[in-house]
Amino acid sequence: MTTNPLLDTLTDFWDREILPALIDYIRIPALSPDFDADWAKTGHLEQARRLALDWLERHRETDWAVHDLQLPGLTPLILVEIPGQREGNVLLYGHLDKQPEMEGWREDLGPWKPVIEDCRLYGRGGADDGYALFAAVAALKALRRQGLPHPRCLILIEFSEESGSPHLPPYLEKYGDLVGTPDLVVALDSGTGDYERLWSTTSLRGMQGCTVTVRTLEEAAHSGIASGIVPESFAILRQILDRLEDPATGRVRLEALHVEIPAIRKQQAKDASEILRLAPVAGLHPLPGLRPLSDDPYELILNNTWRPSLCVTGQDGLPPADRAGNVMRAYTRLKLSFRLPPPLRCEEAKKAIERAVLRDPPFNAQVEIRFDQGGDGWEAPPPAKWLQEACDRASLKHYGHKAAYLGLGASIPFMKMLGDAYPQAQFLITGVLGPGSNAHGPNEFLHIPYARKLTACVADILAAHEAG
């Protein structure tokens, strides 16, 4: 006789109804608007929307209302309004747009090729975070079948999250009455430290991108004639990078980008490091022999969650190696991505970055910086006693371990929006992006057993909800 009927019900629903839908979803190259400027003509986001609406039509309960919303020139929004049997207003969040393909997929895998192997569903967008809509629906249907009351719930699914959610604010303004004032926000778009317990995200870093261009010549010149006479643009850009980051340690040198880390976040990082050890390093598939930036897992967690970092993510002006002649190029342009501590505002970071890049140009070269739209970070409010206890009970019930807490080095712009709009709300930010799942990169996968249990945890937490 079963000892966990809720999980049994959800496992069956996942296998029969969710996995086939996710397989179809992965096949759709539903790129976010930043990566498909002609998204309206391409029609892939519309395909994802249609798949979701058709699935909802088959699985919604008779008293649920599905709001299919489309403002002119914006990606769509789906709201599923589910009446409750007790006080409270819960917002459950996910998105159906995707990151681009990325190189490096295994030969037998691909971004739009769904493959189930070793309890993992491979393909772009399944874990980040196409599963969210289906899991949220499944959790609420399971509560209905178990006869467990829950508060009013609203599932919100957007289509521009991977572009920073630029299309979302107009919908929130126009349909604010429908959204109401949530007292609990459950976001299913985050990460997990391992696959052995429920993880709750306590903070998100901000992000600020920019391009830095160094020009030295009106036109490219023969390297044998120009070298040794005029400075090379990449060498100058390398000096500028050294102003921003210590190349030996990876530490960002701009003190204005660092913040005092709260004691509670240090303790949570210490607790998480004792669980995870160096597992986050292994989950990134480093080449044999590669050393991490620190041998101390505690320092690695703080590096990734509360300290600024810099990545070079793109370039112009450098031809592919197999087409590069003996030429001193006229310019070099690098795309930089800064991750910022949760409390630091992008506007403050931009000022510090701009000052460092533009001051005293080496050899008086032309140096230019252009900033992208940034996104501020976010820190969760302290969890209410009922929420913390409900997370522990659900995690013990379905995983056998108490819940754990961890900051996330990435960004979810919607959380900052909601945190500002609903400062009294509680937040459960969770997800399935665990070790090796590699969202945004090659070989992205969804860990199916973990996702089933996470769905059961969400159901139990909704049933335990206490309106504040």
From TrEMBL:
Q: Which GO terms describe its biological process?
A: proteolysis
Q: Name one GO molecular function term.
A: metal ion binding
Peptidase M20 dimerisation domain ranges (all copies): 203-357
Q: Which domain of life is it from?
A: Bacteria
Q: Name one Pfam family in it.
A: Peptidase_M20
Identify the InterPro entries for this entry.
Answer: Cyt/Met_Dipeptidase, Peptidase_M20, Peptidase_M20_dimer
Question: Quick one: signal sequence residues?
Answer: none
Query: What Gene3D superfamilies has UniProt attached to this entry?
Result: 3.30.70.360, Zn peptidases
- Which keywords annotate this record? Hydrolase, Metal-binding, Protease
Q: Does the keyword Hydrolase apply?
A: yes
UniProt keyword annotation of Manganese present: no
> What is this protein called in UniProt?
Peptidase M20 dimerisation domain-containing protein
The organism of origin for this protein: Methylomarinovum tepidoasis
